[in-house]
Fold this protein.
Amino acid sequence: MDVKNNILSDLPTLYDQSKGLQNILISRATGGNCTDSDYVVLRRVVLNSKFSSLVPDFVRHARDLNQFWQIV
């Protein structure tokens, strides 16, 4: 099973996926352990959702966690 299927099966709803994305960003910002591939998958899901207009600009512009780290 690939990484994309793992994270999406672990977080089945859009709410869970949004919270997962938030947790990844908090973890990265506070020096925790997080997976860039999970961030990329969850970011894509949230940006392609009907709630994409609510996504903060820094998530829109940071395609991976390294770019996010440069913004913060």
